């Protein structure tokens, strides 16, 4: 139904869910309400929520649908199911399209390859994971390559190097089976060793690492020895679990949760082969009066992607939505692996461990949040900003004597980087003119202010001095605050922050914490721009070499 005054007036005063849609009948947002009329009409009042996502939702929303329920709890359940099915773009709590990667050994052929995968549905492959952090996955993959010489190249590259192995063989990161078929027996033995590790038997691997470390140290190859030392430490800290529990933890997740100050922290420990290989942290604000239902929604959403569902999941005995979660997991599990949901007493060592982790993370997060809010308020006062800079966009330029110029835009939300909102610009301005290049980058960004994914920031920060600021200040800034940050000179100790209409830099009274947020944003923008420039320069050099070779 079209959204108009009559529709809003006649909405039922009952619990249920409401659905905003765009002109193409695509679902934008799903919400629940104790009273549909009050909740929906609040979106159209003058005092409505003015957050950016709500503002853009209401600009895009053209149609409205709703479903009444018998109770608010039923509405919450229906909301959860509807969001998981429709995946509306403006839902934050339950629409998380992030999946966790696993290590995969593809067992086809004489020389299987190792790779990362977000799906674990290939019956001809074995998997280790999931890994929440990409660093942990990369470290483990590198370890297997270094110790066992397992290739990670594609089939095309493998065939390409049949006459001559690639550089990975020379740096001892691969046995080089592509040009030496006699390695089949050795390679097969190494694959068997990795299979046993995937099943949790890492004692042999740790022994091999110790032997290699000692050997390298005896031969005074200290750099190699330090590598094996670090990998051994990594294994000990991430895989080993010493517990008196009798649980069979070959393929088990253990869930613990903790609530405080209207916040939820859930920790999921991934046990594979009796060892903790990783953990997931789920954090959210409590949105309803039913905290347990919010917890259920978060857990259900996490497993709804079908990539991380193990054979067994442990949850504490007091969890009231056990049956609902059990049904969800049955739906999420693949046909060949049915997940078993088990309840355990709160005194169970595994449950206690997960809960303790959740409590620690939540307390830490609350403290960090308080510190960040204080720092952002101090930035607002020091720079005399119109609003607190919850969203900061920082720009930097990178070029070599005016060639291959690029610009970066990094986004910090609540003091931390949000890489999903990073942007790159290929600069068309000619000549080594940083002012003009910065002007081009910011101008192009401002032109897209109303587009999806380009929502306005609270503060635009420039990597530069007063000159950069004065140049950009002439643009139509759409009522957005602007500042520039300059590195300290040799005789200076602190970075300078310049704002419009002030000749002197901002004074933070020696308080480095709020300043660090701006410095971190500048450093990240510089890193991102430099990385992009190097890639573009390499591509340019390759194209030049190619043209010369053709000539």
Q: What tags apply to this protein structure?
A:
551 residues, GIY-YIG endonuclease, Nucleotidyltransferase, domain 5, five-stranded mixed sheet, 18 strands
Please, could you describe this protein's structure?
The protein is an alpha+beta fold and about 550 residues long. It folds into four domains: about 80 residues, GIY-YIG endonuclease, CATH 3.40.1440.10; about 140 residues, no CATH class; about 110 residues, Nucleotidyltransferase, domain 5 (2-Layer Sandwich), CATH 3.30.420.10; about 160 residues, UvrC, RNAse H endonuclease domain (Nucleotidyltransferase, domain 5, 2-Layer Sandwich), CATH 3.30.420. Helices cover about 40% and strands about 20% of the residues. It has 16 helices and 18 strands. Strands 12, 13, 14, 15, 16, 17 and 18 form a seven-stranded mixed β-sheet that branches. It has a five-stranded mixed β-sheet with strand order 9-8-7-10-11. Strand 10, helix 12 and strand 11 form a beta-alpha-beta unit. Helix 9 runs antiparallel to helix 10, helix 13 packs across helix 16 and helix 14 crosses helix 15. The termini are far apart.
Please describe the topology of this protein.
Elements: H1 5-9, E1 16-21, E2 27-33, H2 36-42, H3 52-60, E3 63-68, H4 72-86, E4 101-106, E5 114-117, E6 125-131, H5 134-148, H6 155-160, H7 167-170, H8 184-198, H9 203-218, H10 222-238, E7 251-260, E8 263-272, E9 275-285, H11 291-303, E10 312-316, H12 322-332, E11 340-344, H13 349-383, E12 391-400, E13 403-413, E14 416-417, E15 423-426, H14 434-447, E16 459-463, H15 466-473, E17 481-486, E18 496-499, H16 512-550
């Amino acid at each position: 139904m079209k959204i108009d005054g009559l529709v809003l007036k006649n909405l039922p005063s009952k619990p249920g869910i409401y659905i905003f849609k765009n002109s193409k009948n695509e679902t934008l947002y799903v919400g629940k309400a104790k009273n549909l009329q009050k909740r929906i009409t609040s979106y159209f009042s003058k005092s409505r929520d003015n957050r950016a996502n709500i503002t853009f939702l209401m600009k895009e929303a053209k149609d409205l649908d709703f479903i009444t329920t018998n109770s608010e709890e039923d509405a919450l359940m229906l909301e959860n199911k509807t969001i998981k099915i429709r995946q509306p773009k403006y839902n934050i709590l339950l629409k998380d399209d992030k999946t966790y990667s696993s290590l995969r050994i593809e067992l086809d052929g004489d020389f299987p390859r190792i790779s990362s995968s977000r799906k674990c549905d290939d019956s001809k492959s074995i998997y280790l994971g999931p890994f929440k952090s990409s660093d942990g996955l990369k470290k483990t993959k590198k370890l297997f390559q270094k110790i066992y010489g397992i290739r990670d190249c594609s089939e095309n590259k493998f065939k390409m190097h049949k006459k001559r192995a690639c550089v990975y063989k020379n740096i001892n990161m691969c046995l080089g089976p592509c040009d030496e078929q006699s390695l089949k027996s050795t390679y097969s033995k190494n694959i068997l060793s990795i299979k046993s590790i995937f099943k949790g038997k890492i004692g042999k691997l740790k022994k091999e690492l110790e032997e290699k470390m000692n050997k390298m140290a005896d031969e005074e190859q200290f750099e190699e020895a330090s590598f094996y030392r670090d990998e051994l430490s990594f294994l000990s800290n991430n895989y080993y679990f010493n517990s008196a529990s009798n649980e069979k933890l070959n393929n088990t997740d253990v869930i613990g949760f903790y609530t405080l100050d209207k916040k939820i922290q859930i920790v999921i420990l991934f046990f594979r082969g009796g060892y903790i290989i990783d953990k997931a942290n789920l954090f959210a604000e409590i949105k309803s009066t039913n905290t347990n239902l919010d917890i259920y929604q978060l857990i259900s959403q996490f497993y709804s992607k079908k990539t991380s569902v193990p054979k067994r999941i442990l949850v504490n005995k007091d969890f009231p939505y056990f049956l609902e979660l059990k049904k969800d997991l049955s739906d999420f599990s693949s046909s060949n692996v049915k997940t078993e949901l088990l309840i355990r007493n709160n005194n169970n060592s595994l449950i206690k461990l997960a809960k303790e982790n959740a409590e620690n993370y939540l307390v830490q997060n609350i403290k960090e949040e308080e510190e960040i809010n204080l720092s952002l308020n101090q930035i607002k006062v020091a720079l005399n900003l119109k609003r607190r800079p919850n969203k900061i966009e920082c720009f930097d330029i990178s070029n070599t004597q005016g060639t291959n110029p690029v610009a970066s835009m990094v986004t910090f939300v609540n003091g931390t980087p949000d890489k999903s909102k990073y942007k790159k610009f290929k600069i068309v301005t000619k000549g080594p003119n940083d002012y003009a290049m910065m002007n081009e980058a910011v101008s192009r960004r401002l032109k897209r202010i109303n587009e999806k994914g380009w929502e306005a920031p609270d503060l635009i920060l420039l990597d530069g001095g007063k000159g950069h600021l004065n140049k950009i200040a002439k643009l139509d800034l759409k009522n957005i605050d602007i500042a520039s940050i300059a590195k300290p000179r040799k005789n200076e100790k602190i970075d300078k922050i310049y704002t419009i209409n002030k000749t002197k830099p901002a004074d933070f009274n020696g308080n480095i914490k709020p300043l660090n947020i701006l410095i971190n944003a500048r450093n990240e923008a510089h890193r991102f721009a430099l990385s992009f420039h190097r890639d573009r320069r390499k591509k340019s050099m390759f194209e030049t070499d190619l043209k010369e070779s053709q000539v």
